[in-house]
Amino acid sequence: MxxxxxxxxxxxxRAARRWAHTPATLKFNSVTEQDIAHFQKILPAASIISTLSxxxxxASELSIFNDDWMNKYHxxxxxxxxxxxxxxxxEIVKYCNERGIAIVPQGGNxxxxxxxxxxxxxLILSLGNMTKIRSxxxxxxxxxxxxxxxxxxMSEYLAPHDYIMPLDLGAKGSCQIGGNVSTNAGGLxxxxxxxxxxxxxxLEVVLPDGTVLDQLSTLRKDNTGYDLKQLFIGxxxxxxxxxxxxxxxxxxxxxxxxxxxxxxxxxxxxxxxxEVKRQLSEILSAFEFIDRKSYELAVKHGQGRALxxxxxxxxxxxxxxxxxGGKREHDEEKLNGLLESLLEADEPLINTGVxxxxxxxxxQLWAIREGITEAVSKEGKAYKYDIxxxxxxxxxxxxxxxxHLKSKGLLHDDAVKHVVGYGHVGDGNLHLNVxxxxxxxxxxxxxxxxxxxxxxxxxxSISAEHGIGAMKTxxxxxxxxxxxxxxxxxxxxxxxxxGIMNPGKVLE
Amino acid sequence: MxxxxxxxxxxxxRAARRWAHTPATLKFNSVTEQDIAHFQKILPAASIISTLSxxxxxASELSIFNDDWMNKYHxxxxxxxxxxxxxxxxEIVKYCNERGIAIVPQGGNxxxxxxxxxxxxxLILSLGNMTKIRSxxxxxxxxxxxxxxxxxxMSEYLAPHDYIMPLDLGAKGSCQIGGNVSTNAGGLxxxxxxxxxxxxxxLEVVLPDGTVLDQLSTLRKDNTGYDLKQLFIGxxxxxxxxxxxxxxxxxxxxxxxxxxxxxxxxxxxxxxxxEVKRQLSEILSAFEFIDRKSYELAVKHGQGRALxxxxxxxxxxxxxxxxxGGKREHDEEKLNGLLESLLEADEPLINTGVxxxxxxxxxQLWAIREGITEAVSKEGKAYKYDIxxxxxxxxxxxxxxxxHLKSKGLLHDDAVKHVVGYGHVGDGNLHLNVxxxxxxxxxxxxxxxxxxxxxxxxxxSISAEHGIGAMKTxxxxxxxxxxxxxxxxxxxxxxxxxGIMNPGKVLE
Lengths: 508, 508
Ligand SMILES: Cc1cc2nc3c(=O)[nH]c(=O)nc-3n(C[C@H](O)[C@H](O)[C@H](O)COP(=O)(O)OP(=O)(O)OC[C@H]3O[C@@H](n4cnc5c(N)ncnc54)[C@H](O)[C@@H]3O)c2cc1C
Ligand SMILES: Cc1cc2nc3c(=O)[nH]c(=O)nc-3n(C[C@H](O)[C@H](O)[C@H](O)COP(=O)(O)OP(=O)(O)OC[C@H]3O[C@@H](n4cnc5c(N)ncnc54)[C@H](O)[C@@H]3O)c2cc1C
Description:
The first copy, chain A, is α+β, with helices and mostly antiparallel strands.
């Protein structure tokens, strides 16, 4: 989760902690002036940015493509191509495949695992010029768009039709639907609208040999053979380039409300989640968990103006509940009913609850939850783990990590200051943040592989939503068996025998 | 859609209209007495049914496994194995792979496309003895079960926990969760809870060489590499044997209502669908379309007791709307509000609406919709097409098919009596039924490939939910490009190089 829902901001620059591995066995050709000459035949001049002659763009023009969003990973590509059509993408890819030039597909470049920038000097193929909405059917809600469409632009396109995109995330002003599909992005609406494997109905993909795979179906149901498009959802650009996406939009809710609940103890989170699900049922759209320390950091760094001291007193943790439904009165009645029954229970699960009464208060409550990331980064250097574990184990994982650091003598003000947990309880997605005074090899050694092993011991995922990219290829085995990884490698070899598509990402 | 929600019934027996193709190139070994001797080493006696010595079961014991639900496809297998554990499945498959014995995985044997029975004398591996619920987490709603669990048994297991399965279908008393996953079954809840690609969270699969692929995750979010399990969803047993399934159950709705709407004209269906979606939003759980002739057939054959003559007068078609929500009063208020606004509109989209007032009336309204299949089969011989097309084209496809038959001189009482359409508007899934006096080669020739070509011209699917099985392998190209089919074949070869897994199904 990130500090803001509506704008992409750069985090303070920090030194790279680990450099990604490049597969030693693969050799690719660098882009040459001859290649540029060829690209000039298939693309208009405006679609080619290159430091190579005769284009000779200044290096600075390349940097927004070479550097990732966190400014942590830095590619050395000489050339960015910005095709406008699937046909152009296909011609570029076909040529690169023949020439043995490696390609990094790039969307909005907001990925957080170093997948969207080159490891070396791979060609960058940016989808940023492919921004057409191809079709929208207001009856079924199915929208078909070029892969380069910005998520927010699609939301804006849908709004007057009373539809919303089935996903939403902090990066929406920059990330592209093709990038979202390629990372299988989760985000803020997953609890309600499910994941992209369910809502993406079709894809158009340029395969690594340049062939166009047209599975751009606008059907909700199609059981004719293997569902190949699923493989590209979350493949992080290693199996081909997504050029078109067909996706099911959701009817826009007519009303949204939220409430911040203060819990006397951590153990109440799960029974509370059950009760909230039962009572709010289909209108529940978020159930976000915030531990006490996360809350305090948010307050300390200016995010927590919505609660009074008495609301907070004695609370071990907080839960933010959001509803979205078809009728405001009904939703409010349900929320009020929930609050009453919670407060009147014999052994109440909550101490208190603050219900937003206006759009401004609604945003203030969200600001606490969404401000944690920023607050954490103001407090110190954060080791961030975006993990999926069974909901029942959230507390255990935070506690075990803290205990482990303590046993290593690292839990004090000059080393690790806080171990905090927050995240999407509804999705089993915990953001485990270890806030340190500084990044040190000692802390890193204490944390890894400890955290990955801990996650593995719960059959958890070391990457709930951000993907593997270049950052976690070496850790894949903590979440996937050798059998799985071997099969992935075979699939990769089948689609991309020369390995030109985003080399060194996902698989080592 | 089928005549009943709660029981599996055999349709009247009818002659097979087309026999499936067996791939000429593949040669397999028949099961021998030596093989039986080997199976006896790895399985208890009760798990082996075989006409071969020394087991020597009577042939009649094999027939429920060899004959499909429609009694249209008939295998000639000598041997059915009913393992109780994944380990046993793995040992059987490993052995068969080495020996070149082909295997048909079989669940509840309720499939409608001949996929679940052998084409020749393949070994049948029935999952019917693997019926354990492995775990259930009442907080997240994630249930993990053996593949052989009957869908209805899983629903019953969940009921006391206030959860429901995210899918429901007429065959629920017999079909198994492994079979549902393998056919990517749609059914009655898809509009509300989405498809299995979204709700299946993990699978355990025995691969064609006997290796166990454990991707039995209980996580809602996991972005660690390619999502391999997706390939098995809808693979109809051709890539491996599903032995375990992890799936997200949905909180049980507290209340359900329905209403039958009579429309003056077909053209109103789509605007009505939009309006209903807008007003009912998250509580809409079904939007089923019934054309006038389908309705009349239902009445004629005893299904239509719920509407009066004046409700029906002047109606060109009907729509059944169902709501399921968390609070009865709210849902009824929304439904009443919808009906009022529909009736008071300047140009009303509906003539009238009948709202169920009791559980009995609720069932009576559903009985009309669900009784069509039975009514159609009483009226004559039905050519049934289970197609997906853009919702906007439903009427056109029915009309074009009727016109085409007319132009061939086949639209009269001795040939084609009716061309009717009904189905899940919400899912874009039309059941196009051509009701004839008898099955004749002339009618079949007029219908095929005409209907498949028509479907293809809308970029539709020739199989919305039933799959390809043995029945439609030759027609796959109407819904999938050569590029897609070639890739599917490569995937098949990658997983199953010897082709032992359900040969002749899905791919020719
Ligand atoms: C402020 C902020 C908030 C975020 N919030 C969330 C969140 O809530 N949930 C979440 O899941 N993620 C979140 N993310 C990370 C998320 O993965 C990305 O924001 C987004 O999905 C990536 O889209 P993009 O267009 O920027 O892709 P990029 O960053 O450009 O690329 C990401 C990966 O996909 C590949 N790729 C991109 N486009 C294509 C294509 N057309 N074809 C093939 N491969 C392609 C790239 O090669 C790369 O491997 C957040 C990031 C930021 C900066
Ligand atoms: C009355 C009735 C109503 C129906 N309603 C619907 C409906 O509304 N929607 C819909 O989509 N379908 C419907 N169907 C068809 C539907 O496909 C099946 O009912 C069901 O999904 C198949 O489950 P099964 O266990 O019976 O599988 P089977 O019929 O035994 O097998 C179906 C296919 O899956 C394979 N298979 C089965 N189990 C496994 C396994 N464990 N591992 C690998 N492969 C396996 C088989 O080899 C075969 O190819 C209906 C059928 C009937 C008879």
